[in-house]
Amino acid sequence: MEFSLIILRQTILMSLFMLIGYLLYRGKKIDAQGSKSIAALLVWAVIPANVVKSCLLPYSSERMAQMAQCFFLAAAVLMIAMVISRICFRKDPVAQFAASFSNAGFIGIPLVQASLGDGAVFFLIGIIILLNLLQWTYGAKLLKGESEKLSIKSILLNPVTISAVAGVGLFALRLGDRFPPLLTSLVSGVAALNTPLAMIVLGVYLAQTELGHLFTSGRLYFLSAVRLLLIPAVTIPVILLLPGTHDMKMTLMIAAAAPVGANVAVYSQLYNRNYMYACETVTQSTLLSILTLPLMCALAGMVLR
User: Fold this and answer.
1) Using CA atoms, how far apart are residues 74 and 116, in angstroms rounded to an integer?
2) Beta bridge mates, 260
3) 33 pLDDT more than 80
4) Residue 4: is its pLDDT beyond 70?
5) pLDDT tens digit string along 120-166?
6) pLDDT in tens, 223-264
7) What is the mean pLDDT of residues 161-182?
8) What is the mean pLDDT of the chain?
9) Above 80 in pLDDT, residue 109?
10) Residue 1 has pLDDT above 60, yes or no
11) 156, exposed or middle or buried, with CB in 10 Å at 0-12, 13-18, 19+?
């Protein structure tokens, strides 16, 4: 019941942010080009700030070992999602992106805090960094087209990779908790823009879509089933066999079972894909996750014990 209440609260909050974007567009205070500029702000400043912020922690050798373990487990979880998405949506790059990358931050963090405690949020660092990095590289390649080649330059010299190296470097050099207060406030302030800006952009997208289609499209229901049921179901036995603590595995399970991340719409607009369709994948999967997330996490809890 607690899971359901938290998801419901987060869904209501997301809906209110989206309503702001919806009303701004309907009131002609913002247009599609304006939302594209906000999307660029998210990709180039807000998401990198989130990555750095997640690493501004006191150093300990135990935490360093846990971080390495988290990256390993997170890579396995994301690989499962990408492979399944590739198989299920070979000819639909937007659906591949949507099913591959969950809303591990906005939905995942409050669920982890409520069920496992504040300390367990640290276990999300690996998947949040890898998720953002893979969206920028693999995800961008999907949306640009199969002919697009990934170059070493595009992998290394992009805002997410640079911010990930900077964040992990600060933590490894034991500077995470000694970062200048002014800069810490700056990073935290920019990072805090992520949820409201992303959802406002989604509200602008929704204002341009036919809402009835959201609940009648078989393609959307199939995508939600893959994201919310198939991917977490396959993830459970895999992480059961991998090393890691119970709390670490349950944290990553919550991330694996979370709905479609809002960035699919952001990236779809940046690369001129069908961002209205992308927005529908986020909205429908988030609503359905009220039912599926508690179910999948309860199942994972029984298996991992």
Assistant:
1) 18
2) 102
3) yes
4) no
5) 777 888 888 888 888 888 888 888 876 556 566 766 777 877 888 88
6) 999 999 999 999 999 988 888 888 889 889 989 999 998 888
7) 86
8) 85
9) no
10) no
11) exposed
Q: In angstroms, rounded to a whole number, what is the distance separating the alpha carbons of residues 121 and 105?
A: 10
Task: Please choose, from the candidates 55, 62, 63, the residue with its C-alpha nearest in 3D space to the C-alpha of residue 175.
Answer: 55
Q: Total structural domains in the chain?
A: 1
d(CA 125, CA 156): 19
pLDDT score, position 54: 77
**Domain span including residue 12:** 2-304
SS (H, E, C) the chain: CHHHHHHHHHHHHHHHHHHHHHHHHHCCCCCHHHHHHHHHHHHHHHHHHHHHHCCCCCCCHHHHHHHHHHHHHHHHHHHHHHHHHHHHCCCCHHHHHHHHCECCCCCHHHHHHHHHCHHHHHHHHHHHHHHHHHHHHHHHHHHHCCCCCCCHHHHHCCHHHHHHHHHHHHHHCCCCCCCCHHHHHHHHHHHCCHHHHHHHHHHHHHCCCCHHHHHCCHHHHHHHHHHHHHHHHHHHHHHHHCCCCHHHHHHHHHHHHCCECCHHHHHHHHCCCCHHHHHHHHHHHHHHHHHHHHHHHHHHHHHHC
Q: How far is CA 293 from CA 11, 13, 73, 290, 296, in A?
A: 13, 17, 20, 6, 5
CATH code of the domain in which 269 resides: 1.20.1530.20
What integer pLDDT is reported at residue 85 of this predicted model? Answer: 96
